[in-house]
Design goal:
Elements (H helix, E strand, L loop, with lengths): L15 E3 L4 E2 H9 L5 H8 L9 H24 L1
Antiparallel strand pairs: 1-2
Helix pairs in contact: 1-3
């Protein structure tokens, strides 16, 4: 794996978060960065969390982490 891409040139999806649909952490974080703000929105885009639901707590955690990082980045940009 080089520069975040697999040997076949596809982006690395990261560790699997949603086992039902094989959705990886990086794919979920990309969806959050693109505007998904709830587990339901992630489900609508990626199907993650729409079958057994066991990954929903992790989806919510990733939303919280990504939201905190974005907020910190905005505060830093405003301060400069």
């Amino acid at each position: 794996m080089l520069s975040g891409k697999s040997a076949d040139g596809l982006a690395d999806a990261g560790p699997i978060v949603c086992a039902c649909f094989g959705v990886g952490r990086n794919t979920i974080c990309d969806s959050i960065a693109s505007g998904a703000r709830t587990a339901a929105e992630i489900g609508a885009k990626l199907k993650a969390g729409t079958n057994c639901g066991s990954c929903i707590p992790e989806l919510k955690g990733l939303i919280a982490q990504t939201g905190s990082a974005e907020l910190a980045g905005r505060k830093l940009a405003v301060a400069n």
